[in-house]
Design goal:
CATH class of the largest domain: Alpha Beta
Order of helices and strands: HEHEHEHEHEHHEHEHEHEHHE
CATH topology of the largest domain: Rossmann fold
Strand order of the largest sheet: 1-2-10-7-8-9
Structural class: alpha/beta
Helix content: 25-40%
CATH architecture of the largest domain: 3-Layer(aba) Sandwich
Strand content: 15-25%
Radius of gyration: 19 Å
Largest sheet: 6 strands, mixed
Distance between the termini: 24 Å
Shape: globular
Low-confidence stretches: 1-10
Number of strands: 10
Number of helices: 12
Length: 303
Amino acid sequence: MGGQGESVAHRAWWQGEIRVRLPSPLTELVDERLAGHGVRLLLKRDDLIHPELPGNKWRKLTYNLEAARARGFRTLVTFGGAYSNHVRAVAAAGACFGFDTVGVIRGEEHLPLNPSLTYAMERGMRLTYLDRGRYRDKTAPELLAWLREEFGEHYLIPEGGSNALAVRGCAEIPAEITEPFDVICVPVGTGGTLAGIAAGLSPGREAIGFSVLKGGQFLAAEVERLQQAVGRVTGNWRVEYDFHFGGYAKGNAELDSFAADFTARHRLTLDRIYPAKMMYGIFALVAAGRFVPGTTIVAVLTG
């Protein structure tokens, strides 16, 4: 998936324009609920990479931004729901790197705008809306032609940012981990981060994705597709589907209680949409004896 020299070289284009924290910090989480099962947990703090482009958002966008600039595009177009963190990140990236940005939002416009879309507009993003039927066909040639007619020639970033270049960026995560480990865990929404992490693992290690989507079984095929796109198909990963708590951006009192207790114990607030569900899942699997004593787990906090 590319060596260290390639990684350093690709970063030269944005050095001086934005300051990111790479490699992201690695810290140990000490918790008696894990220690009692002989399990060690390390947190890969990708949430600290950049305040506006945290976690897998930076990992997924960095090579896409490089490609857009190299090909001479001045406009980025992407898709997302009304509360999409990806849409926010693309808006922030455009403001940081001098791209115009367009967010194609699923559903009707609702005023006043929610905080996510307000932030995107404040960062210079133009918003346009598609009803849910048209949105489902967002990759259809007719709709893509309409986007070119409406917004001119542009660089298209898929919903969630997951494409071959995103996988390439996420594949760099394992090489940053300096401690020995056995398993690496990540929340999953579109599959790109898991596909990249698994592709970047050395032999004998496993990646586990925790679906934040209800009915997320399609994610397995999507991870395979993304790995095929980069020519690095691996069998060292799996997806857990039982920790979605009702679906994307949903939760319940049990998740809230876990997250509040986690904050009280460790002085770390977990985002409810992604990391909180993964962390709940890790603790549940440890309690169920799914990891043998002596296992070291890395949990990637994606922001």
